[in-house]
Amino acid sequence: MKLGKKIAWALLIVFVGMQFFQPDKNEDTSDHLATFLSETNPPDQVEHLLKTSCFDCHSNHTVYPWYNRVAPVSYWLADHIDHGKGHLNFSEWDTYDAGEKDHKLEEVVETVESGEMPLREYTWTHAEARLTESQRNAILEWARLSRSRLAVNGSPK
């Protein structure tokens, strides 16, 4: 057998083998966002935007696309989600102190305002996550208001 065929077969075997070993799923079924939603009280439109544009990568529950079942994409997505949750995890809002909450909301403002979030790669396959200018402004207004309330009350409520 030629070397090229051997390499192709080896790669195929590795690819098939990878399908049997998937990373852990980010699928918490508890009411993991209750504290965040209760404290920040986003308007219905903003809550919907957060659900469609933010929570998949920044909470303990991800709604996975079909292609997540195919390795190595599943590993890439798992790493991406872990990275996103490392920056901000809305499901762990109750573990942040007032200063951390303010900083997290400040980062929301900065990343949405600059267009960094939602990530372009995410919006390629999640068209509903693409934000219009008015949607960005709604998120920014809510986040700034939550920061102001946090500064006055010690809680963004």
Automatic annotation (TrEMBL):
Pfam families (alphabetical): Haem_bd
Haem-binding domain: residues covered: 12-147
Domain of life, per lineage: Bacteria
Keyword Signal: yes
Entry keyword annotation includes Signal: yes
InterPro entries per the UniProt record, alphabetical: Haem-bd (IPR025992)
Alphabetized UniProt keyword annotations: Signal
Signal peptide: 1-21
Entry protein name: Haem-binding domain-containing protein
